[in-house]
Specification:
This protein is of the alpha/beta class. It has two domains: 385 residues, ANL, N-terminal domain (Rossmann fold, 3-Layer(aba) Sandwich); 91 residues, ANL, C-terminal domain (GMP Synthetase, Chain A, domain 3). The protein contains 15 helices and 25 strands. An eight-stranded mixed sheet has the order 2-1-10-9-11-12-13-14, sandwiched between helices. A hairpin with a 2-residue loop joins strand 1 and strand 2. Helix 2 crosses helix 3. The chain is globular, with a radius of gyration of 23 Å. The N and C termini lie far apart (50 Å). The relative contact order is 0.09. InterPro entries: AMP-bd_C, AMP-bd_C_sf, AMP-binding_CS, AMP-dep_synth/lig_dom, ANL_N_sf. This is AMP-binding protein. It holds the Pfam family AMP-binding_C.
């Protein structure tokens, strides 16, 4: 599987070791035999019920039915679109229509309210053996055919669709399984923190299924309860942990997060946001025998494109932020561009740009325009390359990173303007001393008589936005300050309320 994501090969290997555990979450699990059998049945059902190549929305959280649905879509030559059950129904419907989906398959219950004319069906019992004759062989697909579509926050007020071609998924698999300490042997366990609608989940899925390992995917309930979380981590017997830096920091706050809790842990793959230097030092002190990989990559380039061993980086660079990768070992070519699109010399700051097999070809129609300079995809991230190492130093636009999630202030502001009485709105981050987003703050212009209680405002916003985009602080004002050009004076709001 290290050569490519070859689904014929995956089917063969699953069939040879059907007894090995494949997936576990929330007390439910699947062996590779069950995963493959159910996926083949569901793949055949997809092609019979909804002929063609339309994407399939998979709605749920961490239920075992979801990886079955993902594999079924890939076997059937269909793109899968993961939608977390925490999303409001309005967002799911917007994603359905924007993706041009053929159907929505739900793990437990379909989102409500849901338009009757849009087709839905349960993942189970549709994938139960005996329901339909299983798909005999994977459908042949070209490298440019879409494997999956993820939706991130969009600056236009609507979610942005990011289709990922199969070549990108294959290239990511080749790259991540070649990272020292990450590749699993059959039967080993990787623990994944991220929801399937978050591209970081592609790392734990790929590591598990490419190595015939066992994926233990942490549920929302486990992530919210430290005692339950640590019980789950201890019972997992994990060799590899895939998580955001925020999650790792939260674990490190408890002294029980140690080799005594996870004696088999040999590697942690961190991605999605900045890994603070103190967190890296604390982890490596706490787990002296484990490796910590600090990785970087936008959703538009199949999860991650570069990584660096944090222990090596700490020794090489005695102070300052950690690099996010080694240019020579990246999954794609990485350069730093000037505003005009010229490739800058080593050490010069500019915009990080990517080109290669992992990079997508463009957003779904109507979801935004990708910024390409020639064959370079311009990420919008600022950074530089020095001594063969890559640094990411922030954003060149207003996009925010919160617990690994991308948040476009424009989408949140569009939702805020739907609140009764709100005339204008602005979204700004409250940051930690090292520059990371601590919480999302919103400033609302409304007459005092029209102002809603914060909890009521949050409830109404939850009809439009997923939980991770909901504000942590509301500030109601008679008027939002403006600049000489008549635009919201965000710098003044930051000075007066957020510093």
């Amino acid at each position: 599987m290290n050569e490519s994501v070859n689904w014929n090969d995956l089917v063969t290997r699953c069939a040879k070791s059907p007894h090995l555990p494949a997936y576990e979450s929330g007390g439910w699990g699947l062996s590779y035999g069950q995963l493959l059998t159910r996926a083949r049945v569901l793949a055949a059902a997809l092609n019979q019920l909804w002929p063609g190549e339309g994407p399939i929305l998979l709605y749920g959280h961490k239920q075992p039915a979801l990886p079955v649905g993902m594999l079924a879509c890939l076997l059937a030559g269909r793109a899968y679109v993961p939608c977390d059950e925490s999303w409001p129904a309005a967002r799911v419907e917007a994603v359905f229509r924007q993706a041009g989906a053929a159907a929505l398959l739900f793990a437990d219950e379909a989102p409500a309210p849901w338009p009757e004319e849009l087709p839905t069906a349960p993942l189970w019992p549709m994938s139960e053996p005996g329901i339909i004759e299983p798909l005999a062989a994977p459908r042949p697909c070209g490298p440019e055919q879409t494997a999956y579509i993820l939706f991130s926050s969009g600056s236009t007020g609507q979610p942005k669709g990011i289709p990922m071609p199969r070549r990108a998924l294959a290239n990511f698999a080749r790259w991540i399984t070649a990272r020292p300490g990450l590749a699993l042997t059959p039967g080993e366990t990787v623990v994944g923190q991220a929801a399937f609608s978050f591209d970081l989940s592609l790392a734990d899925l790929t590591l598990a299924f490419c190595g015939q390992g066992r994926l233990v995917s942490l549920t929302r309930q486990e992530l919210a309860d430290p005692a339950l979380l640590f019980q789950r981590l201890s019972a997992s017997g994990a060799a590899v942990l895939v998580c955001t830096p925020t999650f790792l920091e939260l674990c490190l706050c408890d002294k029980d997060f140690s080799p005594a809790l996870m004696p088999k842990l040999r590697a942690v793959f961190c991605c999605g946001e900045v890994l603070p230097r103190p967190a890296a030092e604390k982890f490596l002190t706490r787990f002296p025998g484990a490796s910590l990989l600090n990785a970087y990559g936008p959703t538009e380039a199949a999860c991650a494109v570069c990584a660096v061993n944090a222990a090596d980086a700490l020794l090489t660079f005695k102070e300052g932020p950690l690099p996010v990768g080694l240019a020579a070992e990246a999954a794609v070519e990485i350069a730093v561009l000037s505003p005009e699109g010229a490739v800058l010399a080593e050490g010069e700051p500019g915009e990080l740009a990517l080109r290669g097999e992992s990079v997508f070809s463009g957003y779904l129609s109507g979801s935004g325009d990708a910024r390409f300079s020639g064959r370079w995809y311009r990420t919008g991230d600022s950074g530089f390359v020095k001594d063969g190492h890559i640094w990411c130093t922030g954003r060149l636009d207003d996009q925010l990173k919160y617990c690994g999630w991308r948040i476009e202030p424009g989408e949140v502001e569009a939702a805020l303007r739907t609140l009764p009485g709100v005339e204008r709105a602005a979204v700004l981050p409250q940051r930690t001393p090292d520059g990371r987003v601590r919480r999302i703050c919103v400033f609302l212009q409304a007459e005092e008589s029209a102002r809603l209680p914060d909890e009521e405002a949050r409830r109404l916003l939850a009809l439009h936005l997923p939980a991770y985009m909901l504000p942590g602080r509301f500030v109601w004002l008679d008027e939002l300050p403006v600049t000489e050009n008549g635009k919201c004076d965000r710098a003044r709001l930051t000075r007066e309320f957020l510093l």
